[in-house]
Amino acid sequence: MSPTIQLPERSRIRYPELFQRVQVAALAVLLSVMCFSLPAAARPVPDGFADLAEQLLPSVVNISTTQEVTSPYGNTGEDGDQELPPGIPDFFRDFFENRRIPPQEAHAMGSGFIVDPSGIIITNNHVVDGADKVVVILNDGTELDAKVLGTDKRTDIAVLKVKADKPLPAVKFGDSDKMRVGEWVIAVGNPFGLGGTVTAGIVSAIDRDINAGPYDDFIQTDAAINQGNSGGPLFNMNGEVIGVNSVIISRSGGNVGIGFSIPSRIVQKVVSDLRKYGEVKRGWLGVGIQPVDDAIADSIGLKEAKGAMVTNVVEGDPADKAGIKSGDVILEFNGKEIPDTRTLLRTVADTPANTSVPIVVWRDGARKTLTVKVGQMKPDVDDTEEKQEKSEEGTKQSTPGSVDALGMTLATIDEEARKQLQLPDKATGVAVTHVDRTSEAAQKDIRRGDIIARIGDREVKNVAEAKAAIEAEKKSGRSTILLRVRRGDNYLFIALKAKNEDKKGDKE
After folding, report:
1. Which residue of the set 59, 64, 204, 230 is catalytic?
2. What is the Cα–Cα distance from 161 to 149, expressed in whole angstroms?
3. Are residues 114 and 153 in the same domain?
């Protein structure tokens, strides 16, 4: 009988376990190979920007502006001598009188870029605003007088025209909506008057609102942008303009890696209108709006703080004709959700005039769909809210028939109140004559001289109606009370906590 050969226990090979280990190792190697062989979703770090810069530099221009400045010491006499203002001591008058002061000129530099070989150039409005003379300096040093075809202060865009002996090298617009955070970009411009300068960086953020205007939608970049870069282009790696460099944030005035460009999506629409009409045509509703905060949402039964609340409706304008009312919250416009006021402003502005669109509003605790025929914004419309600052008196000035409620003293509007508080002649409601500095009303910026026209869903014309409306709102179970406040010619909605009881009681 042949002897049985048996391996020591510690040397015994377990084939199933070995096979599993081999499988795991092979799988790991396969995954590693696959990961390194798959193409990257983002564009790799470029070897350099020299070829792209060489291609783009001829299309970027320097812009020099000249503006005549009036002397702060007075007007120039008929003979060119300086007329000094009255009150100057004789010693100084004798010294300065009849001394000819030459005309003063202010010079500024900016950037721009050519978008049409015929000589159409894009820059910022603030680069040419108020200029008496505009000169475009090409990359080869050629100087050309420029004519301003049109400007748009709301987006800070200007279109210039120059006449050249030959077609000029132009660049094309790219799609700014396709840009993603982290993608490479290059900026070209005229920082500090140094001429064509190229800087590189990435898209740091998109859709930035920096409170520069009603249509803020900036691309943020860390590509170096300094004074003089304004109006210059921001390029993608295909050499397409995806933004116009416009704003920097810096305490020193120099680059700190936070610059902002107007997206090409906005620029193209503005440029097209300026070239065609000399102005930008924007849609118009004819409403005043404000954001919806948590307190306002709670006071009107809206589950989420979103939309744009209508503060006032201009009589005869599109919103008025469509049946939109003060107190409505616009939730959708033409099928697009409206999360905030900025979205509504941009969406309406981009809608062509005479277009009929559905609009969804929140009214009386429910959604309601209306149809509005969009109008055209007038060129002289001021987009910024006019605030009338009124002095706040430290002592309470109550009038007969006033009531203390919600941290305020309210009074019926009579002739004496109109005179003391400088209220509009046709204003109706109850006047705020005092605001407790420790109250929520003060925190929400309610001021002496404001007029409360509506409390909850009730119009109020005297203190008795105001008191009844406040009590009704408290009994309704809502935790907040919505006030419609008139300030000057503007309206706004402010929500205050209903449980803010007055400790001093009402005055009879």
Report:
1. 230
2. 7
3. yes
List 260's β-bridge partners, or say none: 220, 247
- Residues 471-490 have pLDDT tens digits of 888 888 778 888 888 887 78
Which residues make beta-bridge pairs with 122? 113, 159
pLDDT tens digits for range 111-124: 999 999 999 999 99
Q: Full-prediction pTM beyond 0.85?
A: no
List 111, 152, 156, 273, catalytic entry: 156
Give the active site residue among 81, 116, 126, 414: 126
Buried-state track 103-127, b at ≥16 Cβ within 10 A, e below 16: eeeeebbbbbbbbeeebbbbbbbbb
Whether residue 371 sits in one domain with residue 410: no
Domain boundary among 244, 262, 277: 277
Q: What is the pLDDT of residue 74?
A: 46
DSSP 360-423: EEEETTEEEEEEEE-EE--TT---SPP----PPPSS----TT-EEETTEEEEE--HHHHHHHT-
Q: Please give the span between the terminal C-alpha atoms of the chain, in angstroms, as a whole number.
A: 125
Lowest mean pLDDT among 271-275, 434-438, 470-474: 434-438
Contact (Cβ atoms closer than 8 angstroms) between residue 242 and residue 263? yes
Number of domains the chain is built from: 4
User: Please, are residues 192 and 227 in contact by the beta-carbon 8 Å criterion?
Assistant: yes
Flag whether pLDDT at 359 surpasses 50.
yes
Residue 230 designated active-site? yes
- CA 256 from chain centre, in angstroms, equals 21
Domain that holds residue 154: 60-162
Q: Say if residue 144 is in the same domain as residue 193.
A: no
Within a domain: 492:
yes
